[in-house]
Automatic annotation (TrEMBL):
Domain (Aminotransferase class I/classII large): residue spans on this chain: 43-205
Gene Ontology terms, MF aspect: L-tyrosine-2-oxoglutarate transaminase activity; pyridoxal phosphate binding
InterPro entries per the UniProt record, alphabetical: Aminotransferase_I/II_large, PyrdxlP-dep_Trfase, PyrdxlP-dep_Trfase_major, PyrdxlP-dep_Trfase_small
Source organism per UniProt: Asparagus officinalis
PANTHER family from the UniProt entry: TYROSINE AMINOTRANSFERASE
Designated name of the protein: Aminotransferase class I/classII large domain-containing protein
Amino acid sequence: MECERGQTKWQFRQKSSFTAGNLAVRAVVNKVMENVDNSNGKPIIALGNGDPSKFSCFRISERAEDAIVSAVRSAKYNGYAFSAGMPCARSAIAEYLNKDLPYKLSPDDVYATIGCSQAIEILLSVLARPGANILLPRPGYPYYEARAALSKLEVRHFNLVPERGWEVDLDNVYALADENTVAMVIINPGNPCGNVLSYPHLKKVR
């Protein structure tokens, strides 16, 4: 697009190689599902699908559905919500988490986000500072790398060991971490491997 006044030209144009699918992990999952052999008649459940309503075995409870409908019909929550989440929702989250914690959370300790992507954006933006680095698992969820690059955080990858159920390679972590390491990402249950780390192993990681 070019402006009509003077000599200045606007460079509003799309990068020729860019498509939304290039950035989506979902595109890879969909490609895998397209190539699955359905001829044996066995039902297939796509574990990469995050929509609980798509498969009947993952349906949310009617109580949860009714709560959503009731909230919409009440008109009490119309308009912009608090950036950190509605106070009543944060209180409920804190109360739920406190059942399994040795310490107590208050609603002020809770920051509700619209999905994991926003949570990653906020956390990495808070952690970013000149010279800082972050430890990410390999293999892992690729969005961390993208957001770290945007926040100018140096990424250092520690390995997960497949022969030990994708446990963290602790020696690898010790070799990578230094005084500028601001965080280490643990995805549990693992994505994309689906592993669940044991409590004893998590204590060693901590």
